[in-house]
Amino acid sequence: NMELNYAKRFDGITGSAIRDIFKLMTNPAIISFAGGNPANSALESDVVSRLAQKVLAERGTQLLQYGQTEGYAPLRESAAEFFKHNGVDVRPEQLLPVTGSQQALDLICKALLDPGDSMLVESPTFLGALQTFKLYQANLVPVDTDEDGVIPELLEEKIVKHNPKLIYLIPTFQNPTGRTLTLERRKAVAEIIARHPGVVLIEDDPYRDLRYAGAALPAIISPGLRVAAAVCTEPTLMRKLVIGKQSTDVHSPNLNQAIVDAYLREGILMDHIRKISESYGKQMAKMQEMLSTLPASVQYTRPDGGIFLWVELPEGFNATKLLTTATEMGVAYIPGTHFYAGPDTHHNTMRLNFSNATLENIEKGMTILKELFISQGLK
Known about the structure:
Helix content: 40-55%
Radius of gyration: 21 Å
Number of strands: 14
Shape: globular
Strand order of the largest sheet: 5-4-3-6-7
Order of helices and strands: HEHHEHEHEEHEHEEEHHHEEHEEEH
Number of helices: 12
Distance between the termini: 50 Å
Strand content: 5-15%
Largest sheet: 5 strands, mixed
Low-confidence stretches: 222-227
Structural class: alpha/beta
């Protein structure tokens, strides 16, 4: 067994808890509230197949050849148009198609972070992002959140104290909590960023259009990462993202970019989102209805959209330990501890995903969790 001298950047990084739980999810007998997957019914394979055939017939050779790192030009145009319906005025050259928003996070870190640099993150926040930041050896500074999202006064306090290079926020239907940053706070955050020009805000906004109630809110500055596109209005930073991408994957797959472009140009996206939102809204209501039957000591979020609910059990109740038993009983969830930047804490929390479960399975799975928790002394 070879003892290799591994890079220190992997110290203390365990791999994604979600990826490990995905292995459990291949078991069809398990009802999973663990992933962040869309409903299978939301994946229109027939439409994608038709568009793939169309773009290959029209531009096959070009799409199968190498493309430019900056992205497939038509997609930069159609994606820029898509942003405009969100009230974000962005030009095609300010938009970089990337291979999943995770790559955008990776490229931003590559461009800006040296080991030991500070960055601010919401507490809790998306564990896939935390993993990327840790691999770039960032000093992660958590900023507390409440029902209305990140607390602006604390954000500014920590900017002054830690002089961070980056701030990472998920303002709408946050992962893992489902909470949304209020309009007042969005304005406050924008003003704080304006006062501290050396700090770059990553605004990760993938769930924005999955709204089932309430009114849409504007982006803080510009949606940072979205439909696998990074919007960057600073030309020098954009150049560094492009150079960083050259060494990562040369360019995102042309065929995939062309399919997304054709989808956007057909104007079917918003209708599709309306259709799935109707179904997701019912799934969310069902899960909340089931949560409301738990003892009053259990707190849970009531979002206006997105795909997650966040549950806080009483202090001292350990959801992390109970996961093994839950999966043996046929239900999976993500323990909330994985979404915190700090030490091993918050074992009384969990993230539940409803978008990938039928109404019947939500009822069945939540009944199993309720029985398990009550058998473990939940009152």
